[in-house]
Amino acid sequence: MSLLREIDGNVLRLIIDxxxxxxxxxxxxxxxxxxxxxxxxxxxxxxxxVLTGSGDKAFCSGADLGGEAASFGPQHHRPTTxxxxxxxxxxxxxxxxIARVQGWCLAGGMGLLAMSxxxxxxxxxxxxxxxxxxGLFPMQVAALLQSLxxxxxxxxxxxxxxxxxxxxxxxxxxxNYVVEPEELxxxxxxxxxxxxxxxxxxxxxxxxxxxAIADMSVEQALAHMEGxxxxxxxxxxxxxxxxxxxEKRAPVWTGK
Length: 256
What we know:
Layout: E1 3-8, E2 11-16, H1 27-38, E3 48-53, E4 58-60, H2 82-91, E5 97-101, E6 104-106, H3 108-114, E7 118-122, E8 126-128, H4 139-145, H5 151-160, E9 164-165, H6 166-171, E10 177-179, H7 184-196, H8 200-213, H9 218-228, H10 236-247
Parallel strand pairs: 2-3, 3-5, 4-6, 5-7, 6-8, 7-10
Antiparallel strand pairs: 1-2, 8-9
Helix pairs in contact: 1-2, 3-4
């Protein structure tokens, strides 16, 4: 199996397990990831997902060009690509998605990084869009990265195909944290601990709202959020959180 899954309490860890290919993703891997994301709904006990790759050489080096690379491009019998459907499933994920990045993160792997809500990288990680080196262009990845990376830096990465370091990725907010390789897991666990003790209902509703306003004008976003602000106080988690605050105790979240 090219994708491993581990459950640690209320955290799901998904591991691309193709180290001999630098964790390049083929169609079975993409479909497996899509299924995992689609299986997490608003009633799921999962509170966060961590995505990473096997070994220390690569997070994901993109498409397996020696395998079923056509999965990244159009197929005449269907209107969408397998890769874009994976990105869509990740966008609909109702819980935070954290990328644990070690080694190379290239091409389609950059799309996996872009679809994550947060990212922690090893100091040895390298990030790049090398498609132009083989006569291609990161078309689908660009749909996500254009809003994450400053325009001129993004253009340089796309047109030169040259990678950037973990420190450079941190400087342009492509990742949240950069640590030494031996500290990577501890930093991911630290970030998870800051997430899973919070209200799952507030996070689900908040993530949904942030996704909805991403392409709105300020006036449109304010109008949308005015409607949303009345919803959260009606949840059980909000009632519990306010009661716990008044009673000076830790809240016990129901996720409802």
